[in-house]
Amino acid sequence: MRILLAEDELDLNDILTQKLSSEGYSVDSCLDGEEAMDCLDVAQYDVVILDIMMPKADGYAVLRKIRDGGSTTPVLFLTARDAVSDRVQGLDAGANDYVIKPFSLEELMARVRALTRTKHGNTGNLLTAADLTMDIASHTVNRAGKRVELSAKEYQLLEYLLHNKGIVLSREKIENHIWNFDYEGGTNVVDVYISYLRKKIDSGHEVRLIRTVRGAGYTLKED
Fold first, then answer.
1. If DSSP codes are grouped into helix, strand and coil, which group holds residue 29?
2. In what order do the strands lie in the sheet with 126-129?
3. Most CB atoms closer than 10 Å: which of 59, 87, 113, 141?
4. Residues 32, 37, 42, 47: is their CA dihedral positive or negative?
5. pLDDT for residue 222 is more than 80
6. What are the residue ranges spanned by the domains of the chain?
7. CATH number for the segment(s) 126-220
8. How many other CB atoms are found less than 10 A from the CB of residue 41?
9. What is the DSSP letter of 169?
10. H-type helices in the chain, by residue range?
11. Which of 32-36, 40-44, 115-119 has the highest average model confidence (pLDDT)?
12. Domain 2-120: CATH superfamily, name plus number
């Protein structure tokens, strides 16, 4: 899942970026609201985390841009403003959640997971396809009851395929969703990681879940 983080406190921004990345998210981090708006113009996100008081454009301005454009992307406000009126204002403006500083990193991660579940219409942390299961809370994957060890990028790719089960995803869409703006790899990165994933998920199984749709991209199907 790809996350946009806009937080002007540099140390906190670094901590959150590291934590989100360690949890398997692809993160684009910004230090002001104007840069966040620029990111929103060129990428799609599963969750947007916004500080309210930021230079150049505050969190409310960024949120307005998101909602005025018709996007339903979940937005979480991260702020030191703890008055009830502030929380009401943020939620009424279109935010989905509101976390007050200081906060627990583990609680924030749980709230992010809850927002991604909402976005994709899931009620729990378990994603399934045939005999494949992924627990997004524990970051574990099993196929036919056996544990499958994945790298961070392999896990992100599989999660994206599971969230879009049965939908054909183009290489461009996959690359834009899984890799952030810092990526400087080769043009065939999606094909390479699909190959890695197939060896770990489908090798040795009669039913192949990851399919190639010639000229269109890839999909994960159960039948």
1. strand
2. 126-129, 132-135, 140-143, 146-148
3. 59
4. positive
5. yes
6. 2-120, 126-220
7. 1.10.10.10
8. 8
9. B
10. 10-22, 33-42, 59-68, 84-92, 105-120, 152-163, 171-178, 189-201
11. 32-36
12. Response regulator (3.40.50.2300)
